């Protein structure tokens, strides 16, 4: 606890002495800004090898949420070698960190964030257009979180050189989205003041197009809760009447929730897994647990469904004469992104454009879509989505705890095209492209946009003022941030430790070694461009 407090104090002091309002810096001319952006793009391009190596290395680690040990060690090592000050273990999370670098006095503090964890049972050889795990049953980057930190680091290093050369004042801060698949990291960092003194956040997330949004996008926020039921064991055959089954309580809660679904808003999404159902059939389970995600589109609706879950859990305990308690694992606020920042980013997106895909890359993408049974086999995107006003009634869907950060400062997400469209998501198929030239090109495009947009924020005080005005006068005028975490909630950093202990020894044999191999594909013996696009016959 003393170490955690010292780290938090050190971070607060660091930010408080480096974060200043952007109005302290005079704006530069449009012509000068254009020239600076060209230099930033050149800085990104000159680091193409570093970008590829970082992307492929993190892919090879394939670490689940809260267990991103090698990943965080590697990224922070690169940043420290390049002059960034790293604070590790923020918010009591061993794999969470911040890395900051300051030039001059004054200027804004701009944060770059991206997630780093992977998906269970998603091990997959990149560049193989059918299911071919590196280590069967092991986790893998079946969403593509291996790519975002490579993007951000390269953008930050290009900016660092430029800020020194051109005497641009400001602070760059990088941070990881730990355990995003558990939505169990960012809300703790927000609660603990990790982002105090930061003026704006540019978040990056893998996608299949180069795009950004403003306002409330489609999707949901959520609260993640584990209900623990406590009963009494007994011999299941000899004296079952002496037992009180915690598993019965879990099953009754699930039945109750499933019956209640019909009477909830259709926008809600909720799911559960039984994480402890007892030990063996001949012992009445004295302990059992079920883990729920309650998703909705507003703070009030999330809290309402959470309260219903609590009520049903207590009813299940009453029916089985058991006791119940619960713990919040994590939460994600409904997202809301900043309009002036998104509009600035969109101008940079249009200047950079989508990567130019080769015929081989398009054939590969279409083969993956065909082999996985995707609804469309159209290959990689060749047209930018563009920026449009938010849907007045956003569709329901997934969650991301970047939402919590979006309610404490101006924030945008930039999606970059390193994945193949029309895939299931959270699936081994989404890992297929993520250490191939498709991912490398997408990361480079995103890195250029991030560097250019950060330059806008560093050198155009009116942009940051407009972003703050939107945040205060539009976004938070009638709705303030509603934290779902209590002061007593703690990150459940033991989650996934057992899975990684089981698979890490086998996975470590396949960690990427860039001193011996040009790419991870080369290390795995995967030919590129791929010539065989259909799975081998199993007959």
Provide the descriptors you would attach to this structure in a database record:
15 helices; seven-stranded mixed β-sheet; alpha/beta; 15% strand; 539 residues; globular; Alpha-Beta Plaits; disordered N terminus; Aminopeptidase; four-stranded antiparallel β-sheet
Q: Give the helix level as a range of percent.
A: 25-40%
| Largest β sheet strand count, sense and barrel closure | 7 strands, mixed
Mean pLDDT: 94
Q: Give a count of the beta strands, DSSP E runs of length 2 or more.
A: 11
The assembly state of the depicted protein chains is: single chain
Q: What's the helix-strand series? A: HHHHEEEHEHEEEHEEHEHHHEHHHH
Which superfamily, in CATH terms, is the homologous superfamily of the largest domain?
Zn peptidases
Q: Over all CA atoms, what is the radius of gyration?
A: 24 Å
The CA-CA distance between the termini, in Å, is 60 Å
Number of domains: 2
Order of strands in the sheet with most strands: 1-2-4-3-5-11-6
Shape: globular
Uncertain runs: 1-24
Number of helices: 15
Structural class: alpha/beta
Instruction: Classify the fold: give the CATH topology of the largest domain.
Output: Aminopeptidase
GO molecular function: dipeptidase activity; para-aminobenzoyl-glutamate hydrolase activity
Domain Peptidase M20 dimerisation: 221-304
Keywords: Hydrolase, Signal
Protein name: Amidohydrolase
């Amino acid at each position: 606890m003393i170490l955690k407090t010292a780290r938090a104090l050190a971070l607060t002091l660091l930010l408080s002495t480096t974060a200043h309002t952007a109005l302290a810096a005079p704006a530069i001319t449009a012509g000068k800004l254009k020239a600076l952006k060209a230099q930033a793009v050149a800085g990104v391009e000159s680091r193409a090898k570093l970008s590829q190596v970082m992307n492929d290395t993190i892919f090879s680690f394939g670490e689940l949420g809260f267990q991103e040990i090698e990943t965080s060690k590697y990224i922070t090592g690169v940043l420290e070698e390049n002059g960034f000050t790293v604070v590790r273990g923020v918010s009591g999370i061993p794999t969470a960190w911040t890395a900051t670098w300051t030039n001059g006095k004054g200027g804004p503090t701009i944060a770059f964030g991206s997630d780093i964890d992977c998906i269970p049972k998603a091990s997959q050889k990149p560049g193989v257009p059918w299911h071919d795990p590196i280590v069967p049953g092991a986790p893998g980057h079946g969403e593509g979180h291996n790519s975002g930190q490579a993007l951000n680091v390269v953008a930050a290093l290009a900016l660092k050189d430029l800020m020194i050369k051109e005497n641009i004042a400001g602070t760059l801060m990088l941070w990881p989205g730990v355990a995003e698949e558990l939505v169990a990291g960012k809300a703790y960092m927000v609660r603990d003041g990790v982002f105090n003194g930061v003026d704006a956040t540019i978040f990056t997330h893998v996608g299949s197009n180069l795009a950004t949004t403003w306002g409330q996008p489609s999707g949901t926020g959520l609260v993640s809760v584990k209900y623990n039921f406590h009963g009494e064991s007994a011999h299941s055959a000899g004296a079952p009447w002496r037992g009180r089954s915690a598993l019965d309580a879990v099953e009754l809660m699930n039945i109750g929730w499933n019956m209640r679904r019909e009477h909830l808003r259709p926008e809600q999404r909720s799911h559960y897994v039984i994480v402890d159902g007892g030990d063996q059939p001949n012992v009445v389970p004295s302990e059992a647990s079920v883990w729920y995600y309650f998703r909705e589109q507003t703070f009030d609706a999330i809290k309402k469904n959470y309260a219903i879950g609590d009520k049903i859990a207590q009813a299940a305990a009453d029916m089985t004469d058991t006791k119940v308690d619960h713990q919040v694992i994590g939460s994600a606020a409904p997202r809301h992104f900043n309009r002036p920042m998104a509009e600035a980013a969109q101008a940079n997106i249009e200047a950079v454009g989508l990567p130019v895909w080769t015929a081989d890359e398009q054939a590969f993408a279409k083969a993956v879509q065909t082999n996985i049974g995707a609804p469309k086999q159209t290959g990689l995107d060749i047209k930018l989505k563009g920026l449009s006003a938010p849907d007045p009634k956003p569709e329901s869907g997934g969650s991301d705890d970047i939402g919590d950060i979006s309610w404490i400062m101006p924030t945008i997400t930039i999606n970059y095209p390193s994945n193949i469209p029309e895939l299931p998501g959270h699936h081994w198929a989404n890992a297929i492209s993520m250490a191939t030239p498709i991912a490398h090109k997408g990361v480079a495009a995103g890195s250029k946009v991030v560097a250019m947009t950060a330059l806008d924020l560093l050198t155009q005080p009116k942009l940051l003022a407009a972003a703050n005005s939107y945040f205060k006068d539009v976004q938070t005028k009638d709705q303030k941030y509603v934290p779902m975490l209590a002061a007593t909630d703690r990150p459940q950093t033991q989650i996934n430790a057992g899975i990684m202990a089981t698979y890490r020894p086998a996975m470590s044999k396949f960690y990427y070694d860039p001193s011996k191999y040009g790419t991870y594909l080369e290390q795995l013996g995967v030919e590129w461009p791929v010539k065989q696009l259909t799975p081998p016959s199993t007959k």
